[in-house]
From TrEMBL:
Protein's name in the database: ABC transporter permease subunit
Domain of life per record: Bacteria
ABC transmembrane type-1 domain segment(s): 25-213
Pfam family, one: BPD_transp_1
UniProt-annotated location(s): Cell inner membrane; Cell membrane
Keywords of this entry: Amino-acid transport, Cell membrane, Membrane, Transmembrane, Transmembrane helix, Transport
Amino acid sequence: MEKFAEQFLNLEIMAAAWPTVVQGLWVTLLICLVVIPMGMAGGLLAALASLSPRRAVRWPMIAFVDFFRAIPPLVLLIFVYAGLPFAGLDISPFTAVAVAFFLNNSAYYGEIFRAGLLSVGTGQAEAARSTGLTAGQSLAHVVLPQAVRNVLPDLISNTVEVVKLTSLASVVSLGEMLHQADLARSVTYNASPIVLAAGIYLAILWPCVRLISRFERRMAT
């Protein structure tokens, strides 16, 4: 047990690695601030397009969602980072992460928004239109708020997954939290910085997990 604590729970090494890990935490938060709003916006557009009455719009969007939900995000990230330069697009690691995660999360958020929109009865939109609202106003003020409320636990759950997904950015040497913790591990030959990073992830995401459970219980009643 003493050897385990020395290798994984060494407080002195954690204290020494703290500035390095926190530096990576800011990069992780920056990725989230870029990817999550972009993913939600892209997902909403994907949901609306996949419900379009026009086949020329609906079927390509369904194919887009299915493809990017099926492809592993790590493979997508490597393809974007290593493949686009061959097409003449030399992008930074941060841009590669933003593009890959945007495509991946737009597909997942799109399915969540689509389920939410389908959960709202068509009578809601028809009643809103009968009051003089346009189709866009009916969607924005009547249908969409109800749809978001119905799938709010799923939206939060997917957002938690996005935060954990940022750890894949270490593959393209972007200095997010896990990458920085691994650098500290390679210098100290000790896994305590990795455990420190895991503890920070837990501290950030645990309240979100509890919030999801609270919403699920409230909606069940």
